[in-house]
Write a structure and sequence with these properties.
about 0% strand; mainly alpha; 4 helices; elongated
Amino acid sequence: MPKKHHAIYSDPTGAAAAASPVKRRVPRAKRAEVPVDGAPSTVSETMVQQENILDRQAIARLAYSYWESRGFVGGSPEEDWLRAERELRETLAASATA
């Protein structure tokens, strides 16, 4: 069986090669420096990360409890999540002002 040749290799004039687009590398954004062990660099970063994790977990637990109270039937996960977020924010705001 004869070998198939690519147009670039079989075109003696090089017209096919000239017609192909030039690939250019796009520079990537520089990464922020992170300590070698991957730990947050300051105590406040650690606290913020822990608060975010706790908030997401609390929201998830509350949203799940709404679904559970409906007998795991119907409703919308997005609506449950948003309702849980709203109620937790209201609770935090009320406790912050007290």
